[in-house]
Design a protein that fits this description.
It is a single chain. Helices cover 32% and strands 27% of the residues. Strand 11 and strand 12 form a beta hairpin. Strands 5, 6, 7, 14, 15, 16, 17, 18 and 19 form a 9-stranded mixed sheet that branches. Strands 9-2-1-13-21-20 form a 6-stranded mixed sheet. A 3-stranded antiparallel sheet has the order 3-8-4. Among the domains are: 144 residues, FAD/NAD(P)-binding domain (3-Layer(bba) Sandwich); 122 residues, no CATH class. It has 392 residues and is an alpha+beta fold.
Length: 392
């Protein structure tokens, strides 16, 4: 009977465990998660969007797994009674200078096989009556869901199939060539180990004897929410045309599955891997970031962008002004704070942001070293990709 240990109880780790119990009957599958609940970090703190796959380079892992994952995630939710809504998304060009980038996005979406269409300003306002646009890309297949609910369902299915989800079990080390996982709740022997530790994936890889080709650097994304009486300003999802130099999509407006409308996130360097506020500082995390030459090389290239993100973080007025480019009626008075998330972004020593999913297989280990958005959308397909690399 094969034994598998999955490190990390976020959506990618749980989807991997679910795939294992489905594909390998009789296998012993154990998920270890340091928190007292599943989906506590990136999974439970994102915007809940089922991405269609517009932004990703054709042929890349992100493009292939997101496009397939959008469909499989919707099917999974329908099968298991999880609320999901396909509301569509507008990617909005607010001025002529953004039109070439919008056209390039359209070409990429078509290359990825997505049902999209370019719309005029008037057509955009038929979809979103309060939007400001000179043109827009309508992505019909974008949806919304509660990924936390997906996590809880996956955990239940794993346990019903005979697997185990151990909460409050933090990994402290590895032995026997990386196949004995040492945790605060005891040791686990495995025939194969999968590292889906998200914000800590590079540290877990180093503990297991792997030298990661990139370092996780945490970026905090802060959210606001529209006041209940202003939610009618947004019907579905409204996004700006992104800057292709960055993996961050810019602040946007998202109607959540519960009817609330979230605004954000921005992207500022976090001072802890779980740095959900400016006051959350961990000296070890700060020291690692400061000592990493890859971050300094990135900062030199994009200093102006970083400063603007910090200014927006510190000013609700500036945050509202960014949203008003998309929906001019939004003001600072319409916003209330709605928490924050932290993105585990892998950065190479060269200072380049790792744009694609980064999954490294060594011997009897698989390490997921870069899985930011659209990882939640793609999670069921990422799981298939991982399991295909594991020994029987």
């Amino acid at each position: 009977m094969a034994r598998y240990v999955v490190v990390g109880g976020g959506i990618v780790g749980l989807a991997t465990a679910y795939r294992l119990v489905q594909d390998r009957p009789g296998a012993q599958v154990t998920v270890v998660e340091k928190e007292d609940r599943v989906g506590a970090h990136q999974t439970g703190r994102n915007s809940g969007v089922i991405h269609a796959g517009v932004y990703y380079r054709p042929g890349s892992l992100k493009a292939r797994l997101c496009t397939a994952g959008s469909r499989s995630m919707q099917d999974f939710c329908l099968e298991h009674g999880i609320a999901v809504r396909i509301c569509g998304k507008l990617i909005v060009a607010t001025g002529p200078a953004e039109l070439p980038r919008l056209a390039a996005l359209h070409e990429r979406a078509v290359a990825n096989g997505l049902p999209v269409r370019m719309v005029t300003a008037a057509q955009a306002r038929e979809i979103e009556p309060h939007v400001a646009a000179v043109a827009a890309l309508h992505v019909e297949s974008t949806g919304i869901v509660d990924f936390g609910a997906v996590c809880r369902t996956l955990a239940d299915l794993v346990e019903k199939a005979g697997g185990s989800v151990r909460l409050g079990a933090r990994v402290t080390g590895f032995a026997a060539g990386g196949t004995v996982v040492q945790t605060t709740a005891g040791e686990l022997s495995a025939d194969a180990v999968v590292n889906c530790a998200g914000l800590y994936a590079d540290r877990i890889a180093r503990l297991a004897g792997i030298r990661p080709p990139a370092r996780i650097v945490p970026f905090r994304g802060e959210y606001y929410e529209l006041r209940p009486d202003r939610r009618d300003l947004v019907r579905g999802l409204i996004y700006p045309v992104p800057d292709p130099q960055f993996p961050f999509l810019g602040v946007h407006l998202t109607t959540m599955i519960d009817g609330t409308v979230h605004a954000g996130p921005n992207a500022v360097l976090a001072l802890a891997r779980e740095g959900y506020s400016w006051g959350r500082i961990r000296p070890r995390d700060v020291a690692e970031v400061v000592a990493y030459r890859g971050l300094w090389r990135l900062a030199r290239r994009h200093l102006r962008y970083g400063i603007e993100e910090v200014r927006r973080s510190l000013s609700q007025q500036r945050f509202a002004a960014s949203l008003a480019r998309l929906v001019p009626e939004v003001t600072a008075a319409d916003l209330v704070p709605a928490g924050a998330g932290v993105r585990a972004q892998a950065i190479a020593p060269t200072g380049d942001l790792v744009d694609d999913f980064l999954i490294v297989a060594r011997d009897r280990q698989v390490h997921v070293l870069n899985a930011p958005s659209p990882a939640a959308t793609s999670s069921l397909e990422i799981a298939k990709h991982i399991v295909a690399q594991l020994p029987d």
